[in-house]
């Protein structure tokens, strides 16, 4: 069965362009499935999919004489006097591939669709050698709306104008799926697996592969155990401001090492940090960034973030796909959990009350926010301005 991802329309629009279509993100977020969907929909007659995890394919695309690659593909039946579509999966496994792509792109009528498991590698390797010749698309785990689609559940997309119209019947229908999203995240395989034990096994395997293969491919990690310890420490700090000095003390690693690891974890799609909005720098905290994981399941496998932090992390991932996310905080400690596109304010509470909304509205006046909402997990009290978390999809 084929499932429609929210990013697919953007990928379709780019399919007819000469530029290289680059899909990047953590492994097992569905990049290969998207590539195969695009290949099916392409009007180019000649198509070839190449998995670079196969050593024979890596050997071919590592050839120093690029015409040798063309000759080998010709022997497989491709004709380069007419358009060709070539999909290359896991390009980070062939270090010289950007140069190969540049040559073939400039010489032949080839539309490339490529995938890679890390923006860190892709952005650094592709920036200069393929300037103007490629467009990157970030592929994340499923949104809650996509999770519902994958599970065959009909649900309309969120409209902020009606978001706070709580419907008890819809909550009862969807709450089990939302709790699943909060606990186990949005990796497609995990979503489609029924058994909780199997979900946990998959998540452990994804995190292990990320540390032992993706990160080792990207950087010279002398001790992966240290990196794993840092990931565990970050998982119990979801929703808090990054304190590099504290992390340095707890890990016994040098400050530059911790900073480099944090950058690597963010560029390779494990975590995301968000900035603080500062309309009045003399009153607000300007520099500190707040930390979140880009998948709830991975955060839960690394450590137990706690119920409230896990819910806040889920809401962050839901908002991430709807605009630019930041937070707001005064030096007194009063804060707004999330500000979306500098216009919408959100306070996240597992069990919310009207007083939470009033405090949010008071702080929101400092930013001239157009609307403020309290996002709740358990709708024991429902009021105007309340949004059940599962409504954000």
TrEMBL record:
<dbReference type="Pfam" id="PF13635">
    <property type="entry name" value="DUF4143"/>
</dbReference>
<dbReference type="InterPro" id="IPR041682">
    <property type="entry name" value="AAA_14"/>
</dbReference>
<dbReference type="InterPro" id="IPR025420">
    <property type="entry name" value="DUF4143"/>
</dbReference>
<protein>
    <recommendedName>
        <fullName>AAA+ ATPase domain-containing protein</fullName>
    </recommendedName>
</protein>
<dbReference type="InterPro" id="IPR027417">
    <property type="entry name" value="P-loop_NTPase"/>
</dbReference>
<feature type="domain" description="DUF4143">
    <location>
        <begin position="214"/>
        <end position="349"/>
    </location>
</feature>
<feature type="domain" description="AAA">
    <location>
        <begin position="18"/>
        <end position="148"/>
    </location>
</feature>
<dbReference type="Pfam" id="PF13173">
    <property type="entry name" value="AAA_14"/>
</dbReference>
